Amino acid sequence: MTAPALFWFRQDLRLADNPALEAACRKPVLPVFLLDDEAAGTWRAGGAARWWLHRSLAALDTALRTRGAALHLARGRAVEVIPALAARIGANEVHAGLLYEPWARKRDAEVAERLRAEGGTLFLHSSALLHEPHTLRSGQGRPYAAFTPFARALFGKGEPPAPFRAPQELSGLELPGLALEALELLPSDEPAWWQGMEESWRPGEAGAQSRLARFMAEGLRGYGEGRDRPAIEGTARLSPHLRWGEVSPRQAWHAARAAGAEGDHGFLKELLWRDFSYHLLWHRPEMPEAPLARRFEAFPAVRDMRLLRRWQRGRTGFPLVDAGMRQLWQTGWMHNRVRMVASSVLVKHLLQPWQDGAAWFWDTLVDADLASNSASWQWIGGSGADASPFFRVFNPVLQGERFDPEGDYVRRWVPELADVPRRFVHRPWAMPGGPPAPYPTPLVAPEEGRRRALDAFARMRAAE
Ligand code: FAD
């Protein structure tokens, strides 16, 4: 009789194009998901991501059952639970997708060690990225620190391998585990802040595939112009599906090619930004906590909880930022252009530490991903790899007028401004009589905020 294998689902919650599952599924297999908050520590999934995970696990279990297996759920320390489960089913092979977060690398090394001591092996398969970070080096033999040469090198390597189909049948082992509710992923607090997420998303592989197909049919062609317009659905909205591995980046890549994306099409470049963020996280594991450009350790940010709270609640007085922060709160997602402006305002106009903004995003984004989130916050704050120069400060009014010219996005998310005429919608404080109550005046005048940010930067440089 063939010895069984244990398949450990982590951030690859799909059946198709899953190399780890492909390796495990030729044997009788026990598919396991384990919630290991202890190992993740500070980086345990935030509130919105946990909501997503709950729904995605339910979808995964349903999909597995149609193929002859069921998801075994567990909670606890992987270093104990995984070897114990393997021993219980008599498996000496454990297969999983590679992870890149520093805490996960450390934890996986411990699991591998424990399994080895008991005669087993942990096989980690590449399944989350287009290219593995440890295999890529620049011409100087170092990891890449800038996106353009990174992307050029990857486009130069040719196409990623074609994705493959889900196994038709699995020979699943039955071993009762926890009920999904016992993972306590769903929030119990009132009001039900996740209601808008329920209406906006369909977590799971089937939802990911239908989102992908829809974007390829309706969005890809106009992506170049549409991607910067937050009022329309001009981007793929695949980020939470990619985050949880419900779709693989090479499925997205090849779907785009099949739908007509040629050369270095913008959508493919965005997929490479994701890979680049992981490349940075792999080579600079301190990225989530510390500035990559060390000089920014001396940046004179002044933590002010009142300012932070106003930003979190979408009450900065800058309509584009407030619309974005409310879209985030209600749906767990924010348009990329607005993420850039909202994060820039927090770090530059309001002089708050980027880590505080990143922590809020971590808790509220359904796509919160340690690599992309910390790389993007550092990029905006000027301390990241390949960051735009600090003195380029986004003006939230001009950004609004350029990318939301009719004010439709603002009006959708900030009902107080629903009746404000177009010419005032991004500067309601300039209306005769001021902004309609209770909408606030800005926390700082845009030019004053810019000047303060540049002064802070100059002080940091003077202290070097
Ligand atoms: P599309 O434009 O359709 O792009 C396709 C895919 O490419 C995305 O799903 C995503 O996986 C990837 N991608 C696009 N832009 C970027 C980028 N700049 N960096 C890395 N990958 C990218 N993205 C996350 O997935 N998780 C995060 O936690 C996250 N935090 C961010 C924080 C800040 C301050 C900023 C400015 C950006 C952040 N992003 C993050 C990047 C980007 O905003 C989202 O990936 C994008 O908005 C997702 O929407 P989409 O799927 O419609 O993107």
UniProtKB/TrEMBL annotation:
<dbReference type="InterPro" id="IPR018394">
    <property type="entry name" value="DNA_photolyase_1_CS_C"/>
</dbReference>
<dbReference type="Pfam" id="PF03441">
    <property type="entry name" value="FAD_binding_7"/>
</dbReference>
<dbReference type="InterPro" id="IPR005101">
    <property type="entry name" value="Cryptochr/Photolyase_FAD-bd"/>
</dbReference>
<dbReference type="InterPro" id="IPR006050">
    <property type="entry name" value="DNA_photolyase_N"/>
</dbReference>
<keyword id="KW-0274">FAD</keyword>
<dbReference type="InterPro" id="IPR036155">
    <property type="entry name" value="Crypto/Photolyase_N_sf"/>
</dbReference>
<protein>
    <submittedName>
        <fullName>DNA photolyase family protein</fullName>
    </submittedName>
</protein>
<feature type="domain" description="Photolyase/cryptochrome alpha/beta">
    <location>
        <begin position="3"/>
        <end position="130"/>
    </location>
</feature>
<keyword id="KW-0285">Flavoprotein</keyword>
<dbReference type="InterPro" id="IPR014729">
    <property type="entry name" value="Rossmann-like_a/b/a_fold"/>
</dbReference>
<dbReference type="Pfam" id="PF00875">
    <property type="entry name" value="DNA_photolyase"/>
</dbReference>
<dbReference type="InterPro" id="IPR002081">
    <property type="entry name" value="Cryptochrome/DNA_photolyase_1"/>
</dbReference>
<dbReference type="InterPro" id="IPR036134">
    <property type="entry name" value="Crypto/Photolyase_FAD-like_sf"/>
</dbReference>
<keyword id="KW-0157">Chromophore</keyword>
<comment type="similarity">
    <text>Belongs to the DNA photolyase family.</text>
</comment>
